Task: structure prediction
Amino acid sequence: MKATTSAKSTAHEGPGRKEMRQVKLSSVVAGLALGAGLMAAATMPDAARAAGKSGTQKVQKVTVTIDGGYKPATVKVKAGQPVQLTFFSKGASCANTVNIPALKKTLALKTGQKKTLTFTPKKGQTLAFACGMGMYKGRIVAK
Result:
């Protein structure tokens, strides 16, 4: 009778041990996943962390056409939000060279070409841009 009881006990312990191993394994996997998430958050750049806290920032897309000057010559954008500024050249002129001193950028475009740059303006900031000769001028105003 003892042998039968032992066999039944062993049969009962078998599945219980298997379930226990599965629970332990699940706990380990969950712990590793949590650890990986915390590590990623700790090593994430400050800008990405800030964007995550405030939600996804919407990129402001602006196109300035170069055609006998800059159109529009004044661009208004929201401060603190990324701006994707595209210059599109429709004709050949000195305006195809665009200097933006505040961003330390100079763009040289050929007729029919587009060039884009992305930046985040500060509140109250006005970024001037002009052709290489200073004849054509424009500005980006952040409010």
Notes: The chain has two domains: 2-43, 60-142. Confidence is low (pLDDT under 50) at residues 28-54. The beta strands are 60-66, 70-71, 74-77, 83-89, 97-100, 105-108, 114-119, 126-131, 137-142. The longest strand covers residues 60-66.
